[in-house]
Design goal:
The chain has one domain: D-Maltodextrin-Binding Protein, domain 2 (3-Layer(aba) Sandwich), CATH 3.40.190. The protein contains 14 helices and nine strands. The termini are far apart. It is about 50% helix and about 20% strand. By secondary structure, the chain is an alpha/beta fold. Strands 1, 2, 3, 4, 5, 6, 7, 8 and 9 form a nine-stranded mixed beta sheet that branches. α2 runs antiparallel to α11 and α13 runs antiparallel to α14. Belongs to the bacterial solute-binding protein 7 family. This is DctP family TRAP transporter solute-binding subunit. Keywords: Signal, Transport.
């Protein structure tokens, strides 16, 4: 066959088109959001139900231009590792509990001030208002992590295998597991018990082996890890309103187009509502849920709770002010007073 100049031109154009094809394919490939959290990958778990809602919403809003891959149950790694990956931009998104955040962004410890919020409605006013926005901007600036929103990790209560706890004096002599965050160590010490910092993944074994007598967590986490199997008693004292934060690498977020950014924010709002609703329902029904699991439940009166507050709050506040500065503590208390009055 004689190759004419015209044929050479056609062959050249075809070759150029073939060379260009990989870049076209790459341009059409979805932008992947790797999304990790620390609860089991089951629909009865608020974190996972919310993650699935985020995935469905974001992929729908972007017409498949963004894809969400979910990694439940800490599959990416422990919280400090996840936070570092978010900071560096090597992980796109995570929902992390409050204790896991503080090692990277210390001011988040302020939410561990005990007995500050009477109910979820007050907490949400503070978190969704000016205080929450100021903290989000500070985290973005200092840690390169974008705080998209807050949801519940459950109102935290004390459980143990030894005896009912009704007064702070009942805590004396008990070995209580706390998450690896110094502020929780100070909280338990202030009530006369012996704190032991143990990672979440090691907690069931520590309770089963008697390494510790008890622990403190919300209903959601007690159910998620079946902690009731090794804990006979729970006291519904609600010492800390624990949080989960929806976090995204700021580097990743800034690479998104305006429509994609808006879709991420909208998907987060939907996930947050589901997450909050499921956790709040479990907290509100703590007594029947945990009695059904075989636990004895102590529901404290307001004066009994105040006895815990009088011992714990001054000690923890003093520690927090020394650790992160008085400004964040004062701002949180001021925002709480305004939310309560409003």
């Amino acid at each position: 066959m004689t190759i004419t100049r015209r044929n050479l031109g056609l062959l050249g154009a075809a070759g150029a088109a073939m060379l260009a094809m990989p870049s076209v394919v790459r341009a059409q490939a979805p932008r992947v959001v790797r999304y990790t959290h620390f609860q089991p990958g089951r629909l009865d778990q608020p974190k996972h139900a919310a993650a699935l809602a985020f995935k469905s919403t974001l992929e729908g809003l972007t017409g498949g231009r963004m894809r969400v891959d979910i990694f439940p149950a800490g599959q990416i790694g422990p919280a400090p590792q996840v936070m570092e990956q978010l900071r560096l931009g090597s992980l796109e998104m995570a929902v992390v509990h409050d204790g896991g955040i503080s090692g990277t962004y210390a001011p988040y410890q302020v939410f561990s001030l005990p007995f500050i919020w009477e109910n979820q409605a007050i907490a949400w006013k503070v978190l969704d208002g000016a205080f929450g926005a100021e903290m989000a901007e500070d985290m973005r600036r200092r840690a390169n992590i974008r705080l998209l929103g807050h949801a519940d990790n459950g109102v935290r209560h004390f459980t143990n295998s030894k005896r009912p706890i009704v007064t702070p004096d009942d805590m004396r002599g008990l070995k209580i597991r706390v998450q690896p965050a110094p502020v929780f160590v100070k909280l338990v010490e202030s009530l006369g018990a012996s704190p032991s910092a143990i990672d979440w993944g090691e907690l069931p074994a520590a309770l089963a082996q008697g390494t510790v007598d008890g622990q403190e967590n919300g209903v959601t986490n007690i159910l998620a890890a079946s902690l009731y199997q090794h804990q006979k008693h729970i006291t519904l004292n609600g010492h800390v309103y624990s949080l989960h934060a929806y976090l995204m690498s700021d580097r990743f977020f800034n690479r998104l187009g305006n429509e994609e950014k808006a879709a991420v924010l909208q998907a987060t709002e939907i996930a947050k509502v589901i997450h909050r609703g499921m956790t709040t329902a479990q907290d509100a029904n703590a007594e029947p849920i945990l009695k059904e699991k075989g636990m004895t439940v102590q529901r404290l009166t307001a004066p009994q709770i105040d006895a815990f507050r009088q011992k714990a709050q001054p000690a923890v506040r003093s520690w927090l002010e020394a650790e992160i500065g008085r400004e964040w503590v004062e701002k949180l208390l001021s925002a709480t007073r305004a939310a309560t009055a409003g």
